[in-house]
Every structure is written in C-alpha cells, then in structure tokens.
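Section 3.1: Structural characterization of target chains.
Under the original work plan, the team committed to producing a structural model for every single-chain target entering the pipeline before any wet-lab resources were allocated. The record below documents one such target. The sequence was received from the expression subgroup and is listed exactly as submitted; it comprises 187 residues.
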Amino acid sequence: MSVTRRMNRAHGTLPGAPDPGHGIGTVAPRANLLRVRNKTVTRRGVLAVLTGISIAGLTGCGSFESFEDDQRSDPGPHPLAEHLRASTELALAYEASFAAEPGLIEKYSVVRDNHWAHADALATATRQPRPSRTLIRVNTGTRDSLLHAERVAAQRAYDATLTLPGTYTALLGSIAASRATHVDVLS
C-alpha cells in the first residue's frame, strides 16, 4: 500500500482508479504522466529538457563552420610560412657548411637537427609538405655567417611571437628560444 495515497476502503482500489462496480472509466486517467521519485514528469517537461540539452550541445558547432570558411578562403600566405622557409634555409646552410668543413659536423649537427625538427613542426602547423632535405645551391657558410643567420632568425621569430595569433605563439616561442640557444652555441 502506498504511504502517500490511501486506498479506497469501499472498493480496495487507489483513488483515480476505475470503480469496479461502475465499469471502466468513471474517473479519466491523467495522460502523459510519469512518476519519478514522487515527482510528476510530463512529456512536455521531458521534451523541454531534451531540447535544452541538444541546444547546449550544439551551441559551439557554428564556430566550426566559420573556421572551415576561413580555411577555404585564400587569406594569403600562412603566418608561419616565412618561419618555415627560414628554418629550412638554416638547416640547409648547416648542411652546406658540413659539406665544406666536415669538422663542423661534430660540434653543430645537433643544431642542424633542431632546424629540421622546427621545419617539420612548422610544416605540420601550416599543413604544408615536409621540406626537402636535398641540398640545393646554398652558399656555404662559415661559423660567423651561421651565427649571423641564427641571430637574424631568432630575432624575427621573437618579434613574430608578439604579433601572431595565440595558437602559433607557443610553437614559434619555443623555436625562438631554441634559436637563441643556437646563437650561444655558435658564439
């Protein structure tokens, strides 16, 4: 027996139930009701909650469409394209220097490898193919010319971190820090 609803003592039924002596439907049942933990939930209430959840879930979906529209339009060169080119040129400059002076390989091969890693990361970020590692007419540089190229590239990367969108700042900031370390290694 229910604690909250008393039985109809005359007929032994719950209130609202059809009276067995009078046939079906003496009391019309309430349609579209569901009892959950002693609370009545209507179909309308359930639909309102589900609609709210679906709207909340789809709220950010419009931003993805605008992002795709931005990607489809041709806004010009990618903000990291210049830095991809610079990393590739620095790596190739080290390759040319190593070809001219094999003694530099022991000291600076790690620096060259860093530039290739930077070029690969920038190519991934810009959705470009990985740069070719074949040596194409690059002026063979001395340690001083490599030092100058590293200083210029480090300063450009640092300056770009101040103006680029936040999504690229971390990547380019780590590249700028690495190039500053390369300047110290070459000094």
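The two ends are 91 Å apart (CA to CA).
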